[in-house]
Amino acid sequence: MTKPLLSVRDLKVEFPTRRGVLTALNGVSFDIMPGEVLGMVGESGAGKSLTGASIIGLLEPPGRIAGGEILLKGERIDNLSPDAMRKVRGRRIGMVFQDPLTSLNPLYTVAKQLTETIMTHLPVSAAEARQRAIALLDRVGIPAAARRIDDYPHHFSGGMRQRVVIALALCAEPELVIADEPTTALDVSVQAQIIDLIKEICAERNAAVMLITHDMGVIAETADRVAVLYAGRLAEIGKVHDVITRPEHPYTQGLMGSIPTLTQESERLISIPGSMPRLNAIPPGCAFNPRCTKAFGRCTAERPDPINRPNDRQVACWLYDEEKAHV
Ligand SMILES: Nc1ncnc2c1ncn2[C@@H]1O[C@H](COP(=O)(O)OP(=O)(O)OP(=O)(O)O)[C@@H](O)[C@H]1O
């Protein structure tokens, strides 16, 4: 059996505040297999970005990992020194964020940023790094790459800049790319192209992708499996086709009523009445119970952990606890 590339085990992230500790991620567990695209979806504030930031070691203080483990090919990466983590980042895990300008330094040419990253992580000469950078820019669809490589980020349009960021994320041949809302800041007309490009180019290089988005339409067209987050917990995880055609968690069922497509104006999820609870007001039992039309006694008292379901799916909902559903 293939071993997971990345394993997140019981991840807990906290923010100490003056009024006490806020638990933003509370026991999140999932695997990403080599070469697969895992979509991560959920409402604003569900904890998608914090999950990504925890994996790449970029959780901003005072946020901290308060429990659990993150393993890359079986080795812990959540407890590495900042130096060791910097080597993992870029070399083994690449990143594409929402706004290309957060990944690119406006003061340096694209050539400098790409060649330096390549040479930091791979044993190649400056000339070879430049050749590789040009080939990669060409691959991500930058016209006249050999000339444009010497331009600065502001010389590129938003869509072209995100292509440069994708080249930067992939230039050291990582095993995993974390893409956090990679098209949100872009014109609708280029969003689908960028998503397709991330998917294609990672597939060519057998890099896995964790694609964070609030857009179920993007997930439907791109991911192999999908993880649905709600209030810092995993509600459901499974193969995209299964989860979309037969959602099991009542929250996922609500999400499916509002799938936009890549060609439509991107719209926020949620046709479910009510809103996700704030971190300091998560109700006892299942966090979704106040909005759930199927909630029963147990749901307000006990928090459900993910329950194994057929076809490699897990659902954190007491409806699927066969023995105890109606206790
Ligand atoms: N510095 C902070 N201090 C306190 N709480 C924080 C801080 N940063 C994030 N949080 C909380 O953590 C929760 C999860 O945030 P996260 O950014 O991961 O959500 P998200 O699912 O990515 O949402 P979005 O789609 O809006 O990016 C939020 O409810 C937020 O209030």
From TrEMBL:
One of its GO terms (biological process) is transmembrane transport. Its main location: membrane. InterPro entries: AAA+_ATPase (IPR003593), ABC_Ni/Peptide_Import (IPR050388), ABC_transporter-like_ATP-bd (IPR003439), ABC_transporter-like_CS (IPR017871), Oligopep_ABC_C (IPR013563), P-loop_NTPase (IPR027417). Residues 8-256 form the ABC transporter domain. GO terms for cellular component: plasma membrane. Keywords: ATP-binding, Cell membrane, Membrane, Nucleotide-binding, Transport. The keyword Chaperone does not apply. It is found in: Cell inner membrane. The keyword Cell membrane applies. Belongs to the ABC transporter superfamily. This is ABC transporter ATP-binding protein. It comes from Falsigemmobacter intermedius. The lineage of its organism: Bacteria, Pseudomonadati, Pseudomonadota, Alphaproteobacteria, Rhodobacterales.
